[in-house]
Amino acid sequence: MISIYILILLSLLVAAGAFVLYLWAVRTGQFEDLEETKFQIFDEDDETGTGSHPETRQPKP
Fold first, then answer.
1. HSE, side-chain direction, 13 A CA sphere, residue 30
2. For the chain, which residues make up each domain, given as ranges?
3. Whether residue 49 has pLDDT greater than 60
């Protein structure tokens, strides 16, 4: 019977942890503008083949 209490307590702790992580994600803006990422491939800011990492970019003339 004690194992049931331990499992219930453990499941409540896991649920509380998940809820705290969800609140953190909402407060830090992790769910803001979910649609933008699928359109980022169409941005013409980078030249073809130069990559998007700042260290690999070629300087623009």
1. 8
2. 1-30
3. no
